[in-house]
Amino acid sequence: GINLANVPGFVNYSNQTGSVATKTGSYTMRTNDYVVLMNSAGAASVTLPSPTAHVYFVKNINVGTCTLQTLTAATIDGHANVSLGASVGAQVTSDGSNWFVISQVTAGTIL
């Protein structure tokens, strides 16, 4: 078999654990977060920490627009921020310098 631990750039996320939290206003992700459900009827933001080998999932579960942004000059798929409308979620990971969307869900559909 192939030992993925020997592949340059491979990060093992299988042992990642973290909390699931519901927030009603703007929030800055912490290292022990894994899933944040944004439950705001108005505009709110979720701020990602400095890029690390970590996976986060953010889902907007209300009607307000949720802006996913970075704490530093890092980008998310080359953008300063990403807008999540109602029922839209995004899973992000990092290469150590920037964040990347690795999966999306919208209104029950996995994209």
Can you walk me through this structure?
This protein has 111 residues and is an all-beta fold. It has no helices and ten strands. The strands form two sheets. It has a six-stranded mixed beta sheet, with no helix packed on it. The protein has a four-stranded mixed beta sheet with strand order 2-4-6-7, with no helix packed on it. A hairpin with a 2-residue loop joins strand 9 and strand 10. The chain is globular and about 30 Å long.
Relative helix content: under 10%
Task: Report the major sheet.
Answer: 6 strands, mixed
Q: Give the class from helix and strand content and strand pairing.
A: mainly beta
Shape label: globular
The mean pLDDT is 85
User: Can you write the helix and strand succession as a string?
Assistant: EEEEEEEEEE
The parts where pLDDT drops under 50 for at least 5 residues are 7-11
Number of helices: 0
β content, as a range? over 45%
Number of strands: 10
Order of strands in the sheet with most strands: 1-3-5-8-9-10
- What is the straight-line distance between the termini? 31 Å
> For the CA atoms, what is the radius of gyration?
14 Å
Blueprint (SSEs and pairs):
Blueprint: E1 19-23, E2 27-28, E3 33-38, E4 44-48, E5 55-60, E6 66-70, E7 81-84, E8 88-94, E9 99-106, E10 109-110
Parallel strand pairs: 1-3, 2-4, 3-5, 4-6
Antiparallel strand pairs: 5-8, 6-7, 8-9, 9-10
